[in-house]
Amino acid sequence: MKRLFTLLIFIVSFHFAASAQDEQITRPQTTAPVAGDAVAKGNWIIGASIANIGHNFKSETFTLDINPRAGYFISDNAAIGAQVQLGFVAYDGGEDFRYGLTPFVRYYFPEGAAPTHRWFGEAVVGFAGSSFEDSEGDAIFDAVYGVSAGYAHFVASNVALEGMLNLIRSNANIDVSNDSSTGLSLSLGLQIYLPGSGRTF
């Protein structure tokens, strides 16, 4: 009986010790209720998105596009800025470097907004170019323009993960297989929202 009582005390003590340790474990932060403060007038946005990364086994083509950006909120929910288009394509027989600069206008919709996320629309107009010169009728350096729809989910006080659906048009030779490019693409990005002078999130 004494052994049974000792075993019971040991089990109860172990249970309470395990419960105390569970309460001390802090889970990683996956959301932050700051979306309204982050998109306020006078704040800044910096970050980058990966628009295309992959390997086509049929054509033996590897593609990587990275678009760093910076912008300024000219009013609540509205930002202007510019992004740099940097791309690389390696294919059987050579490689292609892509480049460009596209100023953008972005608007965060108050409709459907929540403390932890915002929907937004974006328009870009700029130029793009490529080192690829083997296609007839293409332009090595030409205009690029398009529109995007996106979703920003705030994972920290000033950091958001973004997904965007892009419709981009360019006559510049920015694709190995086409003289001009129009189409849909998906991009994922990480954006940092910096408060303007005298502001905090």
UniProtKB/TrEMBL annotation:
* Entry keyword Signal: yes
Which residues does UniProt assign to the signal peptide? 1-20
- Establish whether keyword Signal is in the entry: yes
Q: Which keywords does this Swiss-Prot/TrEMBL entry list?
A: Signal
Q: Can you say what this protein is called?
A: Outer membrane protein beta-barrel domain-containing protein
- Where does this protein come from, organism-wise? Pontibacter populi
